[in-house]
């Protein structure tokens, strides 16, 4: 009988946060490439992807990622989200449970007590002074010249309105929640609590602020 070759390494699909693009994964994408094939996505309206012709919600972005997995015929990849990307990944895991069985959430936003524009803006400003200059310059460029401020404002209402902790109960995939130890946006207690909301969730910390993909790429890849 013909034997089907076994897959020896996983595929990784990386979903970025609000305002930025796939390049926000930086050195973590490089580290993961030594463990398997890495697929970087620019969500609609971000990075090099064209602006959608309608208001796209978190669930809409999740459908785009689900379609990407189908089009590329990716067999149960590890789907990783950062910041707002964690909301997209969790929604996708709930919508398309048969497409994946492992997800990773880096810096999952937003803690319920901070879901207003003034509060979240202050947290992002507090985090900005902790990020390396290269990360800040890249983010500002993406905010202003790629996504654009009007689109970010439109998308922020979806970020603030998302209740990931409720969607978590519908997710059957094994779920790793990773928080930066110096991240003012995502408190460690929130990350630990959120991990407990998933059927198969566990929690880990790494050094660094919100963009831990630059601060601790090797540790994230090992997790």
Give the arrangement of secondary structure elements.
Elements: E1 11-15, H1 26-33, E2 37-41, H2 58-72, E3 78-82, H3 84-95, E4 102-106, H4 117-128, H5 133-147, H6 149-161, H7 164-167, E5 174-180, H8 188-195, E6 201-206, H9 212-215, H10 217-222
Parallel strand pairs: 1-2, 1-3, 3-4, 4-5, 5-6
Description:
The protein has 223 residues and is of the alpha/beta class. It has ten helices and six strands; from the N terminus they run E-H-E-H-E-H-E-H-H-H-H-E-H-E-H-H. A six-stranded parallel β-sheet has the order 2-1-3-4-5-6, with helices on both faces. Helix 8 links the parallel strand 5 (174-180) and strand 6 (201-206). The longest helix has 15 residues, at 58-72.
């Amino acid at each position: 009988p013909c034997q089907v070759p076994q897959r020896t390494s996983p595929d990784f699909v990386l979903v970025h946060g609000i305002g930025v693009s796939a390049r926000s994964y930086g050195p973590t994408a490089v580290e993961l490439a030594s463990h398997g094939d890495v697929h970087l996505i620019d969500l609609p309206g971000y990075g090099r992807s064209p602006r959608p012709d309608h208001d796209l919600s978190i669930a809409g972005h999740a459908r785009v990622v689900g379609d990407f997995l189908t089009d590329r015929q990716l067999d149960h990849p590890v789907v990783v989200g950062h910041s707002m990307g964690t909301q997209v990944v969790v929604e996708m895991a709930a919508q398309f449970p048969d497409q994946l069985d492992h997800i990773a959430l880096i810096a999952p936003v937003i803690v319920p007590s901070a879901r207003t524009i003034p509060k979240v803006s202050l947290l992002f400003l507090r985090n900005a002074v902790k990020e390396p200059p290269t990360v800040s310059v890249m983010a500002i460029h993406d905010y202003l010249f790629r996504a654009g401020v009007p689109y970010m404002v439109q998308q922020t209402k979806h970020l603030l309105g998302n209740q990931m902790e409720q969607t978590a109960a519908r997710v059957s995939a094994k779920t790793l929640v990773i928080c930066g130890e110096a991240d003012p946006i995502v408190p460690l207690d929130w990350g630990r609590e959120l991990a407990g909301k998933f059927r198969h969730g566990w929690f880990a910390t790494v050094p660094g602020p919100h963009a831990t993909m630059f601060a601790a790429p090797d540790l994230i890849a090992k997790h």
